Every structure is written in structure tokens, then in C-alpha cells.
Amino acid sequence: MLSTVPPSGFLNIDKPVGITSHDVVARCRKILGTRKIGHAGTLDPQASGVLILCVGSATRLSEYAMASTKRYRATVHLGRETTTYDTEGEIIAENAINHLDLPSIQAALQPLSGEIAQRPPAFSAIKQDGKKLYELARAGKIIDPAPRRVILHEIQVLDWQPPFLTLDITCGAGTYIRSIAHDLGAALGVGGSLRDLRRTSSGAFQVENAITLEALQTVENPMLCIIPPALALSDWNQYRLDPEQIVALRQGKTIPRTSSEAEGELALGIDAQGQTIAVLQAVSGRWKPYKVLST
Questions:
Q1: Which of 45, 108, 261, 265 shows its CA 20 to 30 Å from the CA of 186?
Q2: Model confidence at 121, in pLDDT bands (50, 70, 90)?
Q3: Active-site residue 196, yes or no?
Q4: pLDDT > 70? residue 135
Q5: Non-local CB neighbours of 269 within 8 Å, separated by 6+ positions
Q6: Domains in the chain, ordered, with CATH?
Q7: Which of 176, 172, 168, 173 is closest to 147 using CA atoms?
Q8: Residues 218-235: what's their mean pLDDT?
Q9: Number of Cβ within a 10 Å radius of residue 287
Q10: In the chain, where does DSSP find H-type helix?
């Protein structure tokens, strides 16, 4: 029977290749016995690695988990261009790459670092006119997505075994690794598409500490795998609340603030046991209950 009071926190799942992020959520709902689970950001079916699930009242923190810096290990197939920028699409061009060398590849990668305007793939979940781009593309409509500002902190070449280039990519939220593969191929004049993708970290969540669905299924008490919000968001300022302050916040009231946060800055309010009670916002010298998680 499904729990009426679900646990609260995050699951760090090592998503396998071949299933959707929604499939992972559905399986974890059955394993944990609660419906209140969502994912903080998605991974394409052919990608693997860190997928953060929000459980219970932590679903209200999904926007903060999604905004964190991501790291990927990506293998690019240079010389092959596809409609979807990865192996799922139709091959539309194949070109010789025997003239390519590592210095030319590294030179082509330079403009892809920093804050750039990136054009998302036509086959993506971004909405246009109320419909997802991949729905429009599959209907045969010509899609030209508008570029979006993204941040690429670092791109390192790990291996070059023609035609496959393996990259270590650290980037901000909203970056399409498929577009990096495509844009790199275009810059080199040979075309490119993504062959493999593995997310190795997302904020504080590392793939080394992730649990597979199979392992989660066999754990005697899977709820013990849930990571408390205060631990998952350990880089946030956190403040211990006394019982009177907790009552006031739950009633929608502000509480005194003696610290020097900038106006509008957010922090976590926790109780004596370390349970996250609310997201606090600094307003006019006081803490305002921006989001109350525990009732």
C-alpha cells in the first residue's frame, strides 16, 4: 500500500541506458511505496549516470537541484551527422576525417567554452507554440530552435581514437551535449554526432555514490538510501531553528535574522535533528518562509 506520509529527500540513481527518466521514477515509486517522486532534470534514454530524484516534500526543491553544475563523459562520432545529433536519428551525412588531428580538434573546441549561445537540437523536449520540439520534428515540420545562453566551464579531451573523440565536459544547467557534438563537427567541417553519454556528477551528487535500480530493489529498507536535503544542499547557508521559530514559519510568519545575507538571498532552515523545515529568504532584516517543506 502506498504511504500517505512519504519520506523526504533525494535519491542519487545511476540510470542505465535504454530507459527514460520517467521509467526510473515509475520504478522507484514502486520500490519506495510512494507516488510523490519526481526527477530533477532528465537524461535521454541512451544516456546513463546520475539522475537525481526528489522524494516527498523535497520535490519542492527540484529547481535548486536542477540548477547545479553538471559533468559528463561524452563520446563524439566525428564524420557522421544525424537528424537528432545522436545515434537515435537518421544519418544525413558521412565525411572522411583522415585529415583531422588532435591540435585541430582542440582548436575547434576553444570557441565552445565559456558563456555561449547554443542552439538546441530540433529533437528535444523544449516547447515551441505549446508543443515539444521533437513532436514538431517528427510531424515533418522544419524546426529552427532559437539559441540559448549556456555556460561551458571546461571541456577536456580524454581520448582520440578516430572517428571517436571522448570528452570530459563540465557545464551549467540547460546545456545540450548533443549540440556540442554537432557544433564541433560543423566547426571541423566533417559533421559530428553523440555516440555515448554518461553524467558523472550533478552538483553534490557523484556517480561513484549513486545506486542502481537493481541494487535499490534489493536493499532491505530502501528509504535509508534517501539523502536529506540539508546534506544534498550542503553548499547552502543553513540555520538551526528553535521550536517557536518553526511554528511561526509554518504559519507563514517571518522570524528575526541576525546574519548579513544580501536582500533576497536564500538559505535552509533546519530543526534540531537536521531535518529541513523551510527555504528561508532574507527580506528586510528578517527571514521569510519562501518554501515550507515540513508540516
A1: 45
A2: confident
A3: no
A4: no
A5: 238, 239, 241, 245, 246, 249, 276, 277, 278, 279, 280, 287
A6: 9-68+204-231 (3.30.2350.10), 74-157+175-192 (3.30.2350.10), 236-292 (2.30.130.10)
A7: 176
A8: 91
A9: 25
A10: 21-32, 62-66, 102-109, 133-138, 177-188, 213-218, 229-232, 243-250
**Beta-bridge partners for 9:** 55
Across all residues in the chain, what is the average pLDDT?
89
What is the Cα–Cα distance from 262 to 282, expressed in whole angstroms?
Answer: 7
Report residue 185 as a C-alpha cell: 563537427
Measuring CA to CA, which residue among 216, 231, 215, 219 is closest to residue 274?
231
- What value does the mean pLDDT take over residues 203-221? 95
Q: What percent of the chain has pLDDT over 70?
A: 89
Closest CA to 196 of 23, 45, 65: 45
- pLDDT over 90 for what percent of the chain? 74
C-alpha cell at 4: 500517505
* pLDDT at residue 1 is higher than 70: no
- Give me the catalytic one of 44, 101, 168, 196: 44
